[in-house]
Amino acid sequence: MELELIRHATHDHVVVGEVRLDAAVATAFKDRMREILPHAPGLVLLDLGKVDFMDSSGLGAVIWTLKALPEGQRLELTGLTPNVERVFRLTRMETVFNIRPTDSDAALPPTDSAAPARTE
């Protein structure tokens, strides 16, 4: 599982380097995110710009990441390709996640429409 972690003062930018986020890599994705999340500042920006295919296991791994966030952290998605955006739209997950249009927003503070921070 190829993930690139770029640390910023206010957030972590995690770039998924795989073309497919599917059953073959979902467990490895969750394992890597499990290592990253405890050390991240308030925002984790997950960049899916290289992912062209996502199945239900890949979507489940992204949902798992949202649920696994420590208290006070937020997850935002960016760089969705048309195929991945379609998966989020068809499953209505675009109503659950705050999705930024491009990864060029990676260094910007959270959007006003950001989902509230995870609290217990």
Approximate strand percentage:
15-25%
Basic shape: globular
Q: Give the rounded overall mean pLDDT.
A: 89
Helix content range of the residues, please?
A: 25-40%
At CATH level 3, the topology is Transcription Regulator spoIIAA
Classify the secondary structure makeup into a structural class. alpha/beta
CATH superfamily: STAS domain
Number of strands: 7
CATH architecture: 2-Layer Sandwich
What is the topology, as strand order, of the major beta sheet? 1-2-4-6-7
- What is the number of helices? 3
Low-confidence stretches: 112-116
Major pleated sheet: 5 strands, mixed
Number of domains: 1
| Order of SSEs | EEEHEEHEHE
Task: Kindly report how far apart the N and C termini lie.
Answer: 30 Å
Compute the gyration radius: what is it?
13 Å
